[in-house]
Amino acid sequence: MSHNTIAINQQMDKFDGHHQVWLFGYGSLIFKADFPFIERRPASISGWTRRFWQGSHDHRGTAEAPGRVVTLAPEPGAVCAGMAYLVTPEEFAHLDHREKNGYLRLAIEISFDEGGSEEGLVYIATEDNAAFLGEAPERDIARQIATSAGPSGRNRDYLVGLAEALRALGKDDEHVFAIERHLADFE
Ligand code: SIN
Questions:
Q1: CA nearest ligand 1 atom 4, residue
Q2: Is the whole-model pTM more than 0.85?
Q3: C-alpha angle 64/149/156, rounded to 5°?
Q4: What does the alpha-carbon distance between residue 102 and residue 85 come to, in Å, rounded to a whole number?
Q5: Whose CA is nearest to atom 7 of ligand 1?
Q6: What is 6-186's CATH superfamily?
């Protein structure tokens, strides 16, 4: 699969005809909402776990020196906490562009912390995308993050921004917080 997923995502017609769609964010979409939304709610999805396994060539790294950003890995029984946004379908042009480096839209059941659930969308970068980096020791991931930067800024700011946003939501994430602790060794 090529790096650029815009054309594939535009073919996704699951929510055609809907005036509003729920979007689940678990990475930068939690702490950098650069799109208009109707409302947002703390939420979670089941069966997926957040991992710094995706390469970033276009935001927090370069083609020569990719950074690392989060994607979701399937894991039975896991719950991934994040933020759900209710958006109009027009927002997906911007979102597809922002998430174009390997992320595909997937329909998913979103559970709101305050109760209830809705079917919505999440962007996932699966292991068959060209920018996928995969598993590595968390200290090595921290080293790569500490030394990477791209058009959207320093990779360490993505990591710290995500960790702070999760703390503000009252959520634990062992993987994210462990990498954040290792970061100190390289700064
Ligand atoms: C997301 O935040 O939901 C997707 C990954 C990212 O943009 O960091």
A1: 27
A2: yes
A3: 135
A4: 21
A5: 28
A6: Gamma-glutamyl cyclotransferase-like (3.10.490.10)
